[in-house]
UniProtKB/TrEMBL annotation:
The protein, known as: Pyruvate kinase
Molecular function GO labels: ATP binding; kinase activity
Highest taxon of the lineage: Bacteria
Species classification: Bacteria, Bacillati, Bacillota, Bacilli, Bacillales
Organism: Gracilibacillus dipsosauri
Bilayer-crossing regions: none
């Protein structure tokens, strides 16, 4: 039995030196030439064939084949150009398929540099491949070229492999020098050995050994291949434009990713100098991700504007990029790669996500990466920073991933150790968010679940300044080059619109607070907001999101407090004194209350160039993209027309546009319908036949406990999933997707992503007021999922909502739950019902 566990190298004397190879051994040859590796493979393969072993050749290199084609040798050709994850996954699966006690020959690992350009990733591949081969009692041959890889790569391979051998070639003679032979020892094992035909001679004499090693350089440290590439690229800046362009074309795939519309736009605008500037601020290696690419591209487009309209307004940035290879390194070095592979299968996609998410929050980073993290923090000092997701697929055409992954503010206060720990935790949080339910659903529904979704990270300095004990920008928001919420014929769709808030921009993108952002149509910026708002103070922003320097955290404070702390610029730019409240307070005897404000941005929108600049900025980006764009921004003022716009994000926005005009059916006298409204809808011109109407009854919903309101949300998720192949109109009170049940229905978007129309019913009397979602993550989801949106303001002129129109239909709710829910939730199968809407006429009818 002992003999069966031992395997011959095909070189008889060498078998005695190392006490044979053992089942489970990974054998790594460090060589000067590929011919040397091949000469060591040949006797091993011949002996394995003689012993009737199952032999597999894994071919991925661009170098000459190591093994000749032979019917007794199974060959797999694996494409390394698809990236680390695809490559490692495919090899894992072929090893699994071939099973135990298979003998493998792999091409030279160094050749992977031509595809991955990173020593780090070669070390990661060996670390995930080697243990699996060991588990299956295989014997595998690998090779690496001497004096090309970093010490850390070689150290990682030495630590992981069972057998590490140096092969020297001097004057046409081969010397084998064992460096590691796991669990075996002999007095001469670790001497160099000269191969003389079928015999081996141990070089034990000091004179002979020193003569041999004097001709070999083994101690020279090497830069990571990634650094070598970019170091050589810097030299090209001194050469002509043709050489610079050739070098740029070589670097683009390393930083930007595979070819796409975004790739070609980057190619059009980025120079070699731009790429070298990016890589000089990268931690680790790999792609910088979609969010970083979008931000950098948009800034370059504006900087290159031929009319020079934007340079004076754009705030510079000094961001850092944590390369996508660090994400895989984190997983591999913490021993979670097998779990990652299990999660990437259809069967394990949801099953293992939570376990992997939990682990991603608890891992450790390699020392070399930690040192680079420390240097980034030392650079920023105590300036607040934000750690943002920047995955490979993020912010690209058709896949915005809006709000699917986390961003984490680091207020960056405290001791260096405390600040570092917060930074590491922020990175872990972003990595763990790849396993969020919404992110998983998003990838699955777009057929992306098997694609590599490496997570790069964008580290940005938070735009703003200290105001009292808090840090925030004056204003922030989101903007879109196309106004999809055209509510009458005079609104210019292509002028764009912005969603504006005071303080940090979180209130502009998150739809979870009892507040209202200011929606500005850029062709008529001073025009009243879109809602029918008699009470301007009630339907405005009441709190501001800020960073608390004292408490070292993101928080919210009353708007009046935030505005009163702004002394560096005229407060009237943003807010007007609420004279009505002032008079009421005086009547009540209050003499020393803080000044109450209404956030109306009246002077900002009416007396500054800001709306005009934003309109031009969005139009220029959309022109270059040849597509509507969505941006996130902050603005800081010195004086009324002296301000800086910090463009923090830019991405294509998927939209249907106007479409063909639609004939709206006329209602006959006394004819009833389910819905009729003038304006307050978005999603283009449509004529949509409906199969089901799902209606949450306002009066009954109000009576529910908070827990039961969450139960309603979960129930709706099950219903819409079961009806996902039908056309569904979803009607409910207040805001769909809120996190506050008193404001609406607390569904996750993933629970309602299959519906065709979302209708939010306003009832001010009952406390449910829809909020135009434009620019929020919820809005992005609706647009990408092609969901039509309607807000119904009951009681307003031209608005009719008649739930009794469906009273003749049978409520199907008992197919999903007990009869106790039948008064709260109605599910109707409808025949012949259509929803018709036309943007230009601003008419919508559903009957």
């Amino acid at each position: 039995m002992e003999f069966e566990l031992k395997v011959s190298t095909g070189i008889k004397d060498f078998d005695h030196v190392i006490d044979y190879l053992h089942l489970g051994d990974n054998v790594v040859w460090q060589v000067d030439t590929l011919e040397g590796y091949k000469d060591m493979v040949i006797p091993f393969v011949l002996q394995a064939m003689k012993d009737q072993r199952k032999i597999v050749y894994v071919r991925f290199g661009q170098h000459m084949p190591i093994v000749k084609d032979d019917p007794l040798i199974k060959k797999y050709e694996v494409d390394a150009s698809k990236g680390f994850e695809s490559f490692a996954t495919e090899i894992h699966r072929l090893i699994e398929k071939e099973g135990p006690r298979t003998f493998y020959i792999f091409d030279c690992l160094t050749d992977l540099l031509s595809n991955w350009s990173s020593d780090l990733m070669i070390g990661n591949f060996f670390k995930v491949c080697c243990p699996y081969l060991y588990e299956l009692d295989t014997v595998a041959y690998f090779a690496i070229m001497r004096n090309i890889h970093t010490f850390s790569t070689i150290a990682g391979i030495r630590e992981t492999t069972q057998v590490l051998l140096d092969l020297y070639q001097l004057k046409e003679k081969y010397y084998i020098h064992p460096l590691k032979v796991w669990q075996r020892y002999s007095p001469t094992m670790f001497f160099p050995h000269l191969i003389e035909g079928d015999r081996l001679k141990s070089i034990t004499a000091s004179a002979e050994a020193s003569t041999l090693f004097a001709n070999i350089n083994r101690i020279e440290e090497r830069m990571d291949y990634w650094d070598v590439i970019f170091s050589k690229a810097k030299e090209k800046l001194e050469e002509d434009i043709v050489e610079q362009e050739k070098t740029k074309q070589m670097l683009m795939p390393l930083l930007i990713g595979e070819k796409s519309r975004m790739y070609h736009l980057c190619d059009q605008y980025f120079t070699l100098q731009d790429l070298l500037q990016i890589v000089s601020r990268e931690v680790g290696t790999g792609f910088i991700g979609g969010k970083s690419v979008g931000m950098l591209l948009a800034r370059k487009i504006l900087a290159d504007d031929k009319k020079g309209r934007f340079s004076r307004y754009i705030e510079p940035h000094d961001s850092f990029y944590i390369g996508s290879d660090i994400f895989y390194t984190y997983i591999v070095q913490n021993g979670w790669w097998k779990l990652r592979l299990k999660q990437k299968t259809k069967k394990g996609y949801y099953q293992y996500a939570k376990e992997l998410q939990d682990k991603l929050m608890k891992g450790k980073f390699p020392a070399t990466i930690k040192e680079q993290f420390i240097q980034v923090l030392e650079y920023f000092g105590q300036s607040p920073i934000i750690v943002r997701s920047s995955s490979l697929l993020e912010d690209n055409f058709g896949n915005a991933f809006a709000g699917k992954y986390d961003s984490v503010f680091c207020v960056n206060q405290g001791t260096p150790e405390q600040r570092y720990q917060a930074f590491e935790n922020a990175i872990r949080t972003v990595y763990a968010s790849t396993m969020n339910v919404d992110a998983l659903e998003y990838r699955m529904n777009r057929g992306l679940f098997e694609k590599d979704e490496q997570m790069a990270i964008l580290v940005q300095r938070v735009s703003g300044d200290h105001h009292g004990e808090h840090f925030f920008p004056h204003i922030a928001g989101v903007g879109n080059s196309s106004n999809l919420y055209v509510w009458d014929k005079s609104v210019e769709m292509e002028a764009g619109m912005i969603r504006l808030v005071f303080g940090l921009g979180t209130r502009a993108v998150d739809r979870t607070v009892d507040d209202y952002a200011r929606i500005v149509t850029l062709d008529q910026p001073t025009r009243k907001p879109l809602m029918h708002m008699d009470d301007q103070q009630k339907f405005s922003q009441h709190e501001a999101d800020v960073l608390s320097i004292k408490d070292n955290k993101w928080t919210s404070i009353p708007l009046n407090k935030a505005i009163s702390d702004v002394w560096d610029v005229d407060q009237g730019l943003f807010a007007s004194i609420d004279t009505g409240t002032v008079l009421r307070l005086k009547d009540l005897g209050y003499q020393h209350m803080p000044t109450p404000y209404i956030l109306d941005f009246k002077q900002l929108l009416g007396n500054t160039t800001f709306p005009k600049v934003m309109k031009q900025l969005l139009a220029e980006l959309a022109r270059v993209y040849d597509y509507p764009v969505d941006i996130e921004f902050t603005v800081n003022f010195q004086h009324q027309d002296d301000y800086k716009i910090n463009l923090v994000q830019c991405r294509p926005l998927q939209t249907k546009g106007l479409g063909k005009s639609v004939d709206i059916p006329k209602l006959l006298e006394n004819e009833r319908c389910l819905i009729s409204t003038n304006g307050n809808f978005m999603g283009g011109n449509i004529r949509l036949p409906l199969d089901y109407v799902v209606h949450v009854v306002t009066d009954e919903y109000i009576k529910l406990s908070e827990q039961d309101k969450y139960n309603v949300a979960r129930l709706i998720g099950r219903i819409t999933y079961d009806l996902r192949n039908d056309r569904i109109l979803l009607i409910g009170p207040g805001r769909w997707g809120t996190s506050t049940p008193s404001l609406g229905i607390p569904v996750h978007f993933s629970e309602i992503q299959h519906v065709d129309v979302i209708c939010e019913v306003a009832s001010e009397e009952k406390g449910f007021i829809p909020e135009l979602s434009y620019g929020s993550h919820f809005f992005q989801d609706m647009v990408e999922a092609d969901i039509f949106y309607v807000a119904l303001f009951e009681g307003n002129n031209g608005v009719h909502f008649n739930p009794s129109y469906l009273s003749s239909s049978f409520n199907l709710i008992e197919q999903w739950t007990s009869p106790a829910w039948k008064d709260i939730l109605h599910v109707y199968k409808v025949e012949g019902m259509e929803l018709t809407a036309d943007i230009i006429q601003q008419k919508l009818i559903c009957k």
